[in-house]
Amino acid sequence: MGHVLKPHSPIEQLLYTTVRITAWNRDRESWFGTGFFYQTMVEGGLNAPFLVTNRHVLEGATEIRIITHRCTEGEDQPSGYYNGTNVNIAPGTVHF
Fold first, then answer.
1. Which H or E run contains 57?
2. pLDDT category of residue 1 using cuts at 50, 70 and 90
3. pLDDT tens for residues 9-52?
4. How far apart are CA 89 and CA 65, in angstroms?
5. Which helix (H) or strand (E) holds 55?
6. Residue 6 — pLDDT band, cuts 50, 70, 90?
7. Cα separation of 44 and 76, whole Å?
8. Do the beta carbons of residue 51 and residue 35 sit within 8 Å?
9. Which residue has the higher pLDDT, 71 or 56?
10. Nearest Cα to Cα of residue 7 among 29, 31, 37
């Protein structure tokens, strides 16, 4: 993992919490959408990250790919590069 962006203003925070989502169903048909990360404190004082998106983005999906911004090494500035993470969607893990 690279250096984490640390946005300074609420506007910068919104820019870097928004992600592109590619979704696939079991027939490997694909579609796209966006979402954003939201973090909240849960039981035991732990912070839990959530991906918030529209229902139609995840409905019927068995796998998604999330694209996030990367920052310039050693700085809190965007690099123009991105990281992608694939996530398998198990039945019952997405809540509408």
1. helix 55-58
2. very low
3. 777 767 777 899 999 999 999 999 999 988 889 999 999 988 89
4. 11
5. helix 55-58
6. low
7. 30
8. yes
9. 56
10. 37
| DSSP-assigned states of every residue in 64-93 | EEEEEEEEPTTSSSEEEEEEEEEEE--TT-
Q: What is the dihedral of CA 7, 75, 68, 10, to 10 degrees?
A: 10
What is the model's pLDDT at position 20?
A: 93
**Residue position matching structure tokens 């959408």:** 33
pLDDT of residue 93: 81
Tokens 């796998």 belong to 63
57 backbone dihedrals φ, ψ, rounded to 5°: -70, -35
CA-to-CA dists, residue 87 to 34, 38, 56, 84, angstroms: 15, 17, 17, 10
**Beta carbons within 8 Å of 39's beta carbon, 6+ residues apart:** 47, 48, 49, 50
